[in-house]
Amino acid sequence: MPTRNIQYRSDIISNRTKYETRIDIESNVIADKTWSHELFLCCDDCGLCCITAILPCVTFGANARQIEAGSCCLYALCCLIPLVNCVALQKIRTQIRMRYGISGAAFNDLLAVCFCAPCTLIQEAREVKLEPKTSSSS
Questions:
Q1: For residue range 105-125, what is the model confidence (pLDDT) as tens digits?
Q2: What distance in Å separates the CA atoms of residue 94 and residue 104, rounded to the nearest whole number?
Q3: Which of 54, 97, 98, 100 shows the shortest CA–CA distance to 79?
Q4: Which of 20, 31, 89, 96 fits a disulfide with 113 by CB distance 3.0 to 4.6 angstroms?
């Protein structure tokens, strides 16, 4: 009886280099990054924190303008209308996440903006300040 050279699955797996990449199922974008700044470290940038605490619509409009999502003033006004603000905030946060390849989900974005809107605005502003011209299409 001839001898067969059989490689077991565990041998094949142990000999391979493991690459971990997360794919955002909603957008089919390879999302292997995380946010550059943690959500609750919003007071690290004192100036941005004060502006966002007093006038969150200014920070929101600036974030929308920075990623070229539309009119800065229109998004700033959307920030002032209840319920519309949650949808608009979630839309911009998801666009920023997709543009910069940050892993996450739209539902998590919605939860974050509904319960921690000022912190999310500051986190987004700091992210677009770090990488203002990067886009997911390049």
A1: 889 999 999 999 899 999 999
A2: 9
A3: 54
A4: 89
Give the list of residues 6+ apart from residue 69 with CB closer than 8 angstroms, or none. Answer: 75, 91, 92, 95
Tell me if 125 sits within 8 A of 48, measured CB to CB. Answer: yes
Residue in this structure with the two tokens 């957008």, named with its chain if needed: 27
Residues in Cβ contact with 52 at an 8 Å cutoff, skipping those fewer than 6 apart: 42, 58, 59, 118, 121, 122, 125
In a 10 Å sphere around its CB, with 0-12 CB exposed, 13-18 middle and 19+ buried, how is residue 131 labelled? middle
**Residue 13 in tokens:** 């797996």
Instruction: Tell the burial category of 58 from Cβ atoms under 10 Å away from its Cβ (0-12, 13-18, 19+).
Output: middle
**Confidence (pTM):** 0.70
CB 29: neighbour CB atoms within 10 A?
A: 19
Backbone angles phi, psi at 29, to 5 degrees: -100, 135
Residue position matching structure tokens 């600036």: 62
